[in-house]
Amino acid sequence: MVVHVPPRQSRGRALAAAVLLAAGACLLFTAPGPLCQAGLTVQAPPCLFRVGDRVRAKMPILLSNSGRGYFNEGAGEGVPPHLRDESEDRMELAAMEKIVEGGEEGTVAGILLKNEWINRPKHWKGHHRTGVMVSWDSADLPMDVAEETELEVIEGSLGARRSEQLRMEKRARRERRGS
């Protein structure tokens, strides 16, 4: 038994395939995605704060390490268990403030940039963002890292003066090298 196959309409199929490929290429290179963004690099905006700036908390800020701050101050890490009193440690931790109240003032002691996200406080989640390390004026509050949106600059800042001093020192070094 012989099966008769009708002749293909090759011209029509080739045209349809070409249109389909063209549409796919248009979508591939115009839709947002990794291929069309391969040549683009976006620079992160600089931090709004400088070391030495005086800042105020705009809202309550959760302290890192259950109130012990960024450096886990007073936790007794590395102290042998036989030298620690666990019940006293629990009572001390329960008595600690866990939140920096809005309106509290401090000084910027450092900046954690987006590319240093690995060093963020453990309770921070989500996208990479800049952190501002603040030494609070109150002796009861440990040094901690806050987000830029939680802080505002206040008068009496040393940041501008410090930046100018660094520029002057850099200029003096260049002049000494050039002489």
UniProtKB/TrEMBL annotation:
Biased composition (Basic residues): 170-179
Chain segments carrying region Disordered: 158-179
Keyword terms: Signal
Signal peptide, first to last residue: 1-30
Protein name: Uncharacterized protein
